[in-house]
Design a protein that fits this description.
The radius of gyration is 19 Å and the shape is globular. Helices cover about 45% and strands about 10% of the residues. The chain has one domain: TIM Barrel, CATH 3.20.20.70. By secondary structure, the chain is of the alpha/beta class. Helix 3 crosses helix 10, helix 4 packs parallel to helix 5 and helix 6 runs parallel beside helix 8. The chain has a 6-stranded parallel β-sheet with strand order 2-3-4-5-6-7. The protein has a 3-stranded parallel β-sheet with strand order 8-1-9, with helices on one face. It is built from 13 helices and 9 strands. The two termini are about 35 Å apart.
Length: about 350
């Protein structure tokens, strides 16, 4: 029965029809039609983006964080983490190297580090935009107030990434301390959209206590939010967190969800994440074939790449490094796509 439902569900998504919870669950559970699902997702991504893959230069600006999320390796309570934060000059140096290599989007990602006040962040953003006016700046710095987000936007930030992680309140409370709330996380996302950012959300696949039902809630929330970018990746454990004994997420289910999201949101910017490349040597190529159209090589200084460890065994040297752009180009081409030097805005 599930097999029949899942095949019909793929066809329904291709026709932009909404699915029932039962149809979503059958599609998530049944891998028999993954090949067909990926083929349909790839066709849709080619209709909107051709064979183009956008590259983003990732700059991990700090691994200090005030929060204590139970799954995260840079959580405040991890006394084993070797902390660092980049200076403005460090960040501008990374951007300079990235621009030389062909990057036209820079992603500034970090924990919720109180050192990076609104004034500091705005100064960095405006500094990048002044030097590279033909580039986009994406921020991924966590939950902030409406006024803070507006200041960053006015300073020149174009995009903001903030994964909601789970749209189910009970599940959220199992992943985060009481000081954090799903309601606030969602409000932040709606604020970002209201201000005018190209807004990205997303979730971990296979996080502790996740169920098919909570995954369906994630999909429903994204239907309501209508983000420009959706970042998903497999949950991967970290040895210095309360969840160290939980299993990591599934490659197959992650790829299935990448394809489902491409069919649900044909226009969306959908990264093939570092986490996919971490759990499988060909993980990012698989993600591209399942409908993803963005990769985010690391532009951070080599000395700190191993310190930004949200999870164990993160790949931090080799083809995922921005400096090996030619290696990355060859890998992307081997999957049937091509990297383009482009700001890579969403195509709605």
């Amino acid at each position: 029965m599930n097999t029949e439902i899942s095949k019909a569900a793929v066809d329904a998504l291709v026709k932009n029809k909404n699915l029932t919870d039962g149809e979503f669950k059958a599609l998530l559970q049944t891998g028999e039609f993954d090949g067909y699902l990926f083929e349909c997702a790839d066709k849709v991504r080619r209709e909107h983006y051709g064979d183009e893959v956008y590259i983003r230069g990732l700059i991990e600006i700090s691994n200090y964080c005030k929060n204590n999320c139970y799954y995260c390796g840079i959580r405040a309570g991890n006394g084993n983490a070797e902390r660092y934060r980049l200076t403005k000059d460090d960040i501008l140096s990374c951007a300079k190297e990235g621009y030389r290599l062909g990057f036209r989007t820079f992603v500034l990602q970090g924990g919720e580090d109180m050192f990076f006040t609104d004034e500091v962040i705005c100064d960095i953003v405006s500094g990048i935009k002044k030097e590279y006016p033909d580039c986009a700046v994406t921020l991924s710095l966590g939950e902030k107030s409406f006024d803070s987000y507006k200041k960053y936007y006015d300073a020149g930030a174009d995009r903001y990434l903030l994964r909601h992680e789970t749209a189910n309140n009970e599940h959220y409370s199992k992943l985060h301390p009481e000081s954090m709330s799903l309601e606030n996380r969602k409000q932040c996302l709606y604020n970002l959209k209201k201000i005018g950012y190209q807004t990205g959300s997303g979730f971990m696949v296979g996080s502790p206590y996740q169920t098919y039902e909570t995954l369906i809630e994630d999909l429903r929330f994204l239907q309501d939010l209508k983000p420009d970018m959706i970042g998903i990746g497999p949950y991967i454990t970290h040895k210095d967190t309360p969840f160290k004994n939980f299993e990591s997420g599934s490659l197959c289910l992650t790829l299935r969800l990448v394809a489902i999201l491409r069919l649900m949101f044909p226009y969306v910017l959908l990264p093939s994440t570092t986490a996919l490349g971490t759990i499988h040597p060909q993980g990012r190529e698989m993600g591209l074939k399942a409908g993803a159209n963005v990769v985010m090589p690391n532009l951070s200084p080599t000395s700190v790449r191993k310190l930004y460890t949200l999870y164990d065994n993160k790949i931090c040297t080799g083809d995922e490094a921005a400096q090996c752009i030619e290696c990355l180009k060859r890998r992307v081409e081997s999957a049937g796509y091509r990297i383009v030097t482009d700001v890579g805005n969403v195509k709605k």
